[in-house]
Amino acid sequence: MFLGEYQHTLDAKGRLSLPAKFRSEMTGSLVVAKGLEGCLYVFSSEDYARFLKQLTEKGDFDPKFRQVRRFFTAGAKEDQLDTAGRMGIPVVLREYAKLDRDVAVIGNGDRIELWDAATWAAYNGETEARIEEVTSELAELGIL
Question: What is the pTM of this model?
């Protein structure tokens, strides 16, 4: 399980060192893909396969399902951490997430999220300001 928030820096070659705690959980290959709200998702290959299975079970006959599946698969890259615990992030994904130098590495349960540090700070501040309202709405729906 991935938990916590860490600040890291992209190197000149577009590589990012994952926190040691995350490296120990990210054994084997990993997948980096576009995420929602302008971040990148990083999954173990197994968790990404489960994620894609949820998308593919809906079939190809609804254009919305095709659109969502393409969003999460186009530009996705499967790779392994190098010996220094770094992952390479393709240019197209760095551009999508506006990753230039300072990166917030966020644990989100079954995945890691990579955010531009300034974007994360703004998003997190907005979320903290609204969290009671959001949890109340979800509780009313019976979700929490």
Answer: 0.92
DSSP string, 73-105: HTT-EEEE--TTSEEE--HHHHHHHT-SSEEEE
Residues linked to residue 15 through DSSP beta bridges, in sequence order: 88
For residue 26, what is the DSSP state?
Answer: -
Number of structural domains found in the chain: 1
Residue 143 lies in a domain: no
For 28, which DSSP code?
A: S
Phi and psi dihedrals of 24, rounded to 5?
-65, -25
Query: Largest Cα–Cα distance of the chain, in whole Å?
Result: 48
Position 132 in a domain = no
Which range of residues forms the domain containing residue 76?
5-116
Q: What is the pLDDT of residues 106-136, one digit of tens each?
A: 999 999 999 999 999 999 998 888 889 888 8
Question: What is residue 27's predicted lDDT score, i.e. its pLDDT?
Answer: 82
**Whether the predicted pLDDT of 59 surpasses 80:** no
CATH number of the structural domain spanning residue 92 = 3.40.1550.20
